[in-house]
Amino acid sequence: MKSTTVFLITTAVLLLSSSEAKAQTTKSPPPSLAPAPAPTPDHVNLTHLLTVAGHFQTFLGYLESTKVIDTFQNRANNSKDGITIFAPTDDAFSSLKQPSLSNLTQDQLKSLCLFHSLPRYYSLADFKNLSESSPVSTFAGGQYTLNFTDLSGDVHISSGWTNTRISSSVLSTDPVALYQVNRVLLPEAIFGTNIPPMPAPAPSPEAEASPAADTPSGVNVNATSPSSSSEQNKNSSPQVISLGFQSQLFFAVLSVVIIMSG
């Protein structure tokens, strides 16, 4: 009986020891190698950015009055595609005489503001490829398009009514690009296609000067110069001398004839 009890106890101890050894030798599974989430881009405050820049106050005023600034802000911080904004300077608005923006409705002003943006982030280098796919639809919709021309990094923009260029980059960090333009972009979808002709370039100084302008007033261009007059006098003097000699000879012969006849 005792031997049986000892055998059972010994067997139990061996089984426990074996299970503990297996538990210690079992390796834990490797950690997951899932990629870390991409860092969230920094929040861009467009109102603050345009205010600090200093010369976009008129444009910012239109964005705020039409609530387009909220659309731009949401696009800048909650979209993977980002946004590209073309901000006219205060001088661009003050120099705009015709057509006037004062007669536009609130909806038209909203479309005008949206027309100054593209619903995607574009760096300056991207405009080379973008110019090949012009016209490009803006944030305002399909009818509101812009044409881009890249001339060795100098980006020109045309809306039909407006021809301008990107004069400087205020911010160009994905997902937000903010570029300065020196003219207000006017869409044909609002102002029509009856675009007045551009003023002709000023003529060059050479073209302005007429042949008569080179001649002082009151001077006869056909008048003979003093040098030519003196030359004519020189040429005529031998003829005068020749005629004088012949007349003297005639009177001398005549005198001889009269004397002989007397």
UniProtKB/TrEMBL annotation:
GO terms for biological process: plant-type secondary cell wall biogenesis. One of its GO terms (cellular component) is plasma membrane. Keywords: Cell membrane, Glycoprotein, GPI-anchor, Lipoprotein, Membrane, Proteoglycan, Signal. Its main location: membrane. It holds the Pfam family Fasciclin. Residues 197-237 are annotated as: Disordered. Gene3D superfamilies: FAS1 domain (2.30.180.10). SMART domains: FAS1. The keyword Disulfide bond does not apply. Residues 225-237 have a biased composition (Low complexity). Residues 43-185 form the FAS1 domain. It is found in: Cell membrane. It comes from the Eukaryota. It is a lipid-anchor; GPI-anchor. The keyword Signal applies. Belongs to the fasciclin-like AGP family. This is Fasciclin-like arabinogalactan protein 7. It comes from Rhodamnia argentea.
